[in-house]
């Protein structure tokens, strides 16, 4: 998320001080570069521009290895953070140092777009943000940092605090690549090693792909969910399928024999009995999308570290031919001044149980339920013609 929209995801470290409460983690909401807008590719004919924002997350206590791995937050520190004024939230450099100086010597970034999220309570505000070592930028010594005032209730109105910055050697920040999944960041005489989470990119093992399907990638969302991004080669559209080969970070509650919803996440999954009971993500909770929390969907956590294996931009162009020649291999637009990225969000956004039920019934009545999901339930619209290309029907 960006321009005013950030995202976030679990390193196990809760760091606090009497002056402010800082929680650092890797499971939270989706993420993106400072001041980044995203374009949504939901099918061959659908493109929707969205604002992009980095994210925040939940964190676990920094405890002895022999102790249980839990997340523990004390109200005392939350209250002390809210009533402190020690951090100037209008100074992006000051906030970055406040966060970076409190990191342990070594951390893990789980989300697959390489966001390390945090939550901070200070000055009567809850701030969410992230440090990002973006593929393609970290190798050039660029680190992105962004944060925003979280919309806890409808009464959190504009203007909200929202700042971001790219840090480079010009700011005194140095990034050393120790190996492709380990980077040391040094700033103001402090060094932190960031370990990137390695993801297998093998095809799914628990269900078979249809003859017209390709498994593009495995991803790790800031919510803790892991997904497969699947592409239909006949009609050129995307779908997200739950990766049940890995631990699931939520309880899935049955709403019917073929529909389950995450107890925490609100993610709605269709159980497709004809394809080994795989769980297809069909909808996300509207409240999460509106306030950009941990459960705003997997659109912003593509497997960037494996782009030369996944070739994801080729599939983006297949889904939306008007993108040809306009994006790089990660899906970033090359014809815009501000950093902007294609977002893959083929799922419905629901604001009530009734709306979800109606959507699900219509999906099951559709000739191609997967295409229906990829379109968010909307009727097809014409694909813009591309010079030298044949428009799809």
Largest sheet descriptor: 6 strands, antiparallel
Globally, the shape reads: globular
User: End-to-end span in angstroms?
Assistant: 32 Å
Which percent range fits the helix content?
10-25%
Tell me the domain tally.
Answer: 2
How many alpha or pi helices? 7
Output the strand order for the largest sheet: 1-2-8-9-10-11
Helical/strand content category: alpha+beta
Strand content: 25-35%
Mean pLDDT: 84
Contiguous uncertain segments of 5+ residues = 1-32, 35-40, 42-63, 382-393
Radius of gyration: 21 Å
SSE succession? EEEEEEHHEEEEEEEEEEEEEEEHHHEEHH
Strand segment count = 23
Protein model, in words:
- Helices cover 14% and strands 33% of the residues.
- By secondary structure, the protein is of the alpha+beta class.
- It has two domains: 13-196, no CATH class; 213-374, no CATH class.
- The chain starts with 12 loop residues before the first strand and ends in a 19-residue tail after the last helix.
- The longest helix is centred in the last third of the chain and has 13 residues, at 353-365.
- The chain has helices at 75-82, 92-100, 286-291, 307-310, 312-319, 353-365, 369-374; strands at 13-16, 21-25, 27-28, 36-43, 46-52, 57-58, 106-109, 115-122, 125-132, 143-149, 162-167, 173-179, 182-187, 190-196, 213-220, 226-232, 237-242, 252-256, 259-262, 268-272, 278-285, 340-343, 348-350.
- The protein has a six-stranded antiparallel sheet.
